[in-house]
Amino acid sequence: MPEHLSIHPLTRQAFEPYGDVIEADPSTVRLINNGTTERFHRLGVAEAEGEGIIISLFRGQPRQFPYEIGMMERHPFGSQSFSPISGRPFLVAVSDDVDGRPGKPTIFLVRADQGVNYRRNVWHHPLMVLDAPSDFLVIDRDKPENNLEEFHFDSPYIIAEPRP
């Protein structure tokens, strides 16, 4: 029988085992361009084995809820970051690695002013958009080696209707 999952707010502390929260953090501010621009410095670190870090635009379609999480994926050769540019919140699901497979997923509601950077080898679910098609700036690795591993659960997990 499917297990229902709770949705948690995204915080740096809660997400730290899986990667970085990308958001305007006043403690990282550096003034540049003669003081006309605030640079929120080093909010995440892109990881890549070898070469090939690229920037892409992803357009995600909204999921229908309740939603079943039947699989997780990870990228062994590089990190992957998602920053929304459509001004809409979204969900992320991450799992600890348990003997080479994902454990029970943890679900986070990512605000429209936040993004995430999954560390390499972190189990996560593909993009989960809410309400309307949404665009994301994505930074990840692009090389000919297969940088994708998938795992399918025997029994799916269920996410009820999110309430952003």
In short:
This protein is mainly beta. The chain contains one helix and 17 strands.
What does this structure look like?
This protein is mostly beta strands and 164 residues long. The protein has a single domain (3-159), classed as Jelly Rolls. Helix content is 2%, strand content 49%. Strands 2, 9, 12, 14 and 15 form a 5-stranded mixed beta sheet that branches. The longest helix has 4 residues, at 12-15. The two termini are 27 Å apart.
What would you report as the Rg, rounded to the nearest angstrom?
A: 16 Å
How do the helices and strands follow one another from N- to C-terminus? EEHEEEEEEEEEEEEEEE
Helical/strand content category: mainly beta
* Total helical elements: 1
Task: Work out the number of β strands.
Answer: 17
The proportion of strand residues reads over 45%
Largest sheet, strands/sense/barrel: 5 strands, mixed
Helix content: under 10%
> What is the 3D shape?
globular
First-to-last CA distance? 27 Å
The fourth-level CATH homologous superfamily is Ureidoglycolate hydrolase
CATH architecture descriptor: Sandwich
CATH fold node name: Jelly Rolls
Per CATH, the class reads Mainly Beta
Q: Whole-number average pLDDT?
A: 94
Number of domains: 1
Give the low-confidence spans.
none
